[in-house]
C-alpha cells in the first residue's frame, strides 16, 4: 500500500513538472505571436504623452487609462484617440491643429480638450502655441530653407549651383498682373512677424541684367494672386529702360505704380521694403549700407500673409535670363527703430 502511494505521488510530480515545462515553452511563443500581429499604433497607450508640431503650435496628447488607444494615420498627419468602453473617437489634425468628433465639422482645438468617462478624465489634448519668430534669413548656402513655399514651381529654372551660395531663378513668361496669375517660381514664406508687426524685408540681387520688357526681379508681400505688393528691378521701355518699380494690386485692381529710372551700370543691387502699419516704404542701395527711397505707398490691411522673392518676364516673350539672389531677410522693427535711410521722403 505504501509502495503504491509513493508510486502515485511520483507520477503526479512528474506530470506537474511536465506541465510546468510545457508552459514555459508555449507561453512566450503565444505571447510573441500576439505581439507580432499588432502594430505599434494599435497597442493601448498606458499614459504616454505625445507631442507633434503643427502649423499653429505643438499638439500635445496624454492618456490616463491603459484602455485608451492612440493611432497615427496618414503618415502622422492624423491622430485618433479612442475609448473602447464608450466607443468614442476624437480625430486630431496634426498639421493644422484642429480636432473633429465623429461626424462633426472640424473645429479649432480649445485651450484644453478633455476626454471623460463617468466624469473621470481619461485623456486630454491641447495646443501649446509656438513663440512668434523674431525674423528669418536664408543665405542659400547649398540649399534653401524648407520653410519656403514655391508658387507655380518649375524646378528646371531654379539653381543653387550656377552661382554657388546664391539662389538663381531663370525668368520665364508669367505675371500676377490682373487675371494672368501664371508667374513661375515665386518663393513665398509665411510671414514670421506676428500680429501685424512692422518689419524690414531685404535682399541682395547679386547678378541680374534686365534687357527686355518685362525682365524683373525683386521682393514681394503677398496675400493671394489678386492682392500683392511687389518691388522689383526691371526693364521697361516706357520708363526709359532699367528702372525700379513698385506695383500693387487689391482685389485684382491696379493701384497707381511708382517708377525710378536707373541710369547707371550696377554691380549688385540691394532692395528693401519697410512696413509700418499698412504703409510701405521701398528703397534701394548700391552698397547695402545707404538706402534711398523710391516710393511710399499704402496697401492691404497691414498684415501680409506671406513675403518673398520673384523673378519673371511678365507677359512678354523676352529671353530667359538669370536673376541671382545672395540672401533674403525679414526682421521686426519697433517704434524706436533707428534711421533706415540716407535721404528724405520723396515729395
From TrEMBL:
SUPFAM superfamilies: Concanavalin A-like lectins/glucanases (SSF49899). It comes from the Bacteria. Pfam families: GH43_C2 (PF17851). Residues 137-329 form the Beta-xylosidase C-terminal Concanavalin A-like domain. InterPro entries: ConA-like_dom_sf (IPR013320), GH43_C2 (IPR041542). This is Beta-xylosidase C-terminal Concanavalin A-like domain-containing protein. It comes from Symmachiella macrocystis. The lineage of its organism: Bacteria, Pseudomonadati, Planctomycetota, Planctomycetia, Planctomycetales.
